[in-house]
Design a protein that fits this description.
Layout: E1 3-8, H1 15-26, E2 30-32, H2 33-42, H3 46-56, H4 63-74, E3 82-86, H5 92-103, E4 111-116, H6 119-132, H7 140-163, E5 167-171, H8 176-187
Parallel strand pairs: 1-3, 1-4, 2-3, 4-5
Helix pairs in contact: 1-8, 2-3, 2-4, 4-5, 6-7
Length: about 190
């Protein structure tokens, strides 16, 4: 069974945990743009060198660089039968580019799963994680701002995928196994 899935959700909703679990359950790679950036920078690819310039300056990596890295990653053999994207697309222009990348292979996104979570619960999770990981810069104000930015940037994407009938919202709170099962039941 091929699966081309996008996983979205606010910081702290458990995307990373669920991406790993879903990848294993579905037999497709979990592809994170952060991982792609790090691999290209470490491998000193041309795209990696270009991305590093932006990252070192504290700027967003432009869409054209991100799109090229994602296209390259999706062309690898392990993604031929499907993938789970985490962190891409982030803009409507990236949605359009992903559509073009997949259409060239006569493929399309099959499911978009949005993990939802109560804001106060997510703030509590992220504050606990910040304390555990020693992230002194993750104050409650900073976390709430990140959640506001996420909401603002993601709304256009959820609208696009909802209008296509692809968006599935899944409660991201509760037992990890239960959340995985909720996701799997919505995409099967």
């Amino acid at each position: 069974m091929s699966s081309r899935i996008i996983l979205i959700g606010p910081p702290g909703a458990g995307k990373g945990t669920q991406a790993a679990r879903l990848s294993e359950a579905l037999g497709v790679p979990a592809i994170s743009t952060g991982d792609i950036f790090r691999a290209n920078v470490k491998g000193e690819t041309e795209l990696g060198k270009l991305a590093k310039r932006y990252m070192d300056a504290g700027e967003y990596v432009p869409d054209e660089v991100t799109n090229s890295m994602v296209a390259d990653r999706l062309a690898q053999d392990d993604a031929a039968e499907g993938f789970l994207l985490d962190g891409y697309p982030r803009t409507s222009a990236q949605v359009d580019e992903l559509d073009r990348i997949l259409a060239a292979e006569d493929k399309a996104v099959e499911h978009v799963v949005e993990l939802t979570a109560d804001t106060d619960e997510v703030v509590a999770r992220l504050l606990a994680r910040a304390q555990t990981e020693g992230r002194s810069d993750d104050s409650e104000d900073v976390i709430r701002h990140r959640l506001d930015v996420y909401e603002e940037q993601t709304q256009p994407l959820t609208d696009i995928y909802r209008s296509r009938g692809l968006l599935r919202q899944v409660d991201g709170l509760g037992d990890v196994d239960d959340i995985t099962e909720r996701i799997l039941s919505t995409i099967r």
